[in-house]
What does this fold into?
Amino acid sequence: MAKNVEYEELSTASISDKRNIVISEYSKGGYTLGQQVVVEEGSKKINMFVKNSIQIENIEGLYNLRDALNVAISKIEKK
It folds into this structure.
């Protein structure tokens, strides 16, 4: 029988009123960058993940993602 796939949430960042980016460690190795939609039903909030997350193979990939974000932010701030 195949082992269940598990994700351990490492961090979450809000990218709009109703959307988050979630970085998780993948039980079969590597990391995922997923998009989470927050749906409000009355006083309850439901978090749903959008299909097709970005797969990041290793910690070097996370460093590269961080560096790319820092470069983009720096360029935007200089405008």
About this structure: The chain has one helix and five strands. The beta strands are 7-16, 19-26, 31-41, 44-49, 54-56. The first helix runs from residue 59 to 78.
